[in-house]
Amino acid sequence: MSRRPPRGEYIETDTGNKVARKATLVGTQNIMLGGKTVIQPEVMIRGDLIRSIQSSSSSASGAAPNNTAVSIGRYCFLSRGCCLRPPGRLYKGAFTYMPLRMGDHVFVGPGSVVQAASIGSHVHIGARVAVGEFAIIKDYVRVLDGTVIPPNMVIPSFSIVAGQPARLIGEVPEGGHEAFELRDLYKTVGNNPQPAPS
Amino acid sequence: MTSYCRPAILSPKVQQGESKQSFPHCIKQPCSFPKIPQGRLLKSQRKITMSSKRHSIVPPVSQSGPKPPVQFSSSITISDSALLTGTNLIAISSESVIHPRAKLDSLAGRINIGRRCVVHERSVVGAVGTSGRITEAAVTLGDYVTVEVGASIEAGDTVIGDGTTVGVGAKVGAGAVIGKHCTLTPHTEIAAGEVVPDFTVVYSNGLRRPDRRGIAELKNKGQIRQIDVLRRMIPSNPAKFD
């Protein structure tokens, strides 16, 4: 009998990240996970698309280049089949990808494609959403299913957006920010999941 | 003990913050099987006993179906985790880029990809639709075509004109003919057999307007720059598909 424990569906790291074995992470050395992040199967993260032009401040100081392509905060939840890729554009006459930054408690729904420049904390992105390149989503934003966020759009805090292209359709009600917490959801997946508290 | 792996030195990134941790050091490699003596290694030991060579976790792609004949230009960039299946010829012209996990399916006919095209991950070129008919040229992409993440182009004499962008998750039906320099915004669906004239923007679930910006040339130049960068970032392995 094998003395090794059976291989679970997820790889659980010391910092509490749960990464599905069936997730496709390209260029893992450029992906930063804050901890307690769930990456479900069939998620794809393009960490290989790194910045090809360093910002002038870092190159002047002579420090080691910071190649982070995708950085994700704590308690993020990447649902099945979603895709995160850094946005790319022409900058000073050359093409470069820019890092994708994501705050804490960000939920990304199944089948969504995120190419934002930055996503704040406590953001809920529904299923099959396309977030255009260099979009900026601030904190406590709810993006409904099937939304297409055009490139370069800035979504202010506490807004609810929907539509193709995305429009602001409402605001998160007072006290509604509790719903963005993902701590409970984090416990419901993994190799020994716990049932969601009712 | 087999020399399956060398201890990786923790990168400086790890020291950036206590909670932030660079990812590859915390996971064990998912495929190839290190014969760990008894599985009794401490967690901390396990963390560093990982090949420093591994830069990705990419589950193996399932090569289902026949391996198609290919005709590649020598200057293309094709990731080795791209998926090529089918029975007919797949021709890719010079300087085009095929991202990892893009799928080209020539089961229903020949696939032609023009010069300096970029086919992003998870897109399907030559998806066998409901019709299932086999034609001479299943899908023809012109030059400077961009097929974005998760887009799907059905087979059956489908033509995408030069400089056209097929947006994230868009669907182009069998036999549709898309003109030159069009933009299909994300989640657009083009019905089978539809003809979209040159310089059209299809947006908001089917609305159309002409593109009068006159930036086709500039976009092409941008595409060249993008391909220059991608060529350095995506490890190309055309030999795998021969």
From TrEMBL, chain A:
Family membership noted in the UniProt record: Belongs to the dynactin subunits 5/6 family. Dynactin subunit 5 subfamily.
Primary localization class, coarse: cytoplasm
GO cellular component, one term: dynactin complex
Keywords assigned: Cytoplasm, Cytoskeleton
Taxonomic lineage from the root: Eukaryota, Fungi, Dikarya, Ascomycota, Pezizomycotina
A Pfam entry, by short name: DCTN5
Protein name: Dynactin subunit 5
InterPro entries: DCTN5, Trimer_LpxA-like_sf
Localization of this protein: Cytoplasm, Cytoskeleton
Automatic annotation (TrEMBL), chain B:
Domain of life: Eukaryota
This protein's UniProt keywords: Cytoplasm, Cytoskeleton
A GO molecular-function descriptor: dynein complex binding
Gene3D superfamilies named among the record's database cross-references: Hexapeptide repeat proteins
Keyword Flavoprotein among UniProt keywords: no
GO biological process: mitotic spindle organization
InterPro entries: DCTN6 (IPR027777), Hexapep (IPR001451), Trimer_LpxA-like_sf (IPR011004)
Family (UniProt): Belongs to the dynactin subunits 5/6 family. Dynactin subunit 6 subfamily.
Function (record text): Part of the dynactin complex that activates the molecular motor dynein for ultra-processive transport along microtubules.
Protein name, as recorded: Dynactin subunit 6
Source taxonomy: Eukaryota, Fungi, Dikarya, Ascomycota, Pezizomycotina
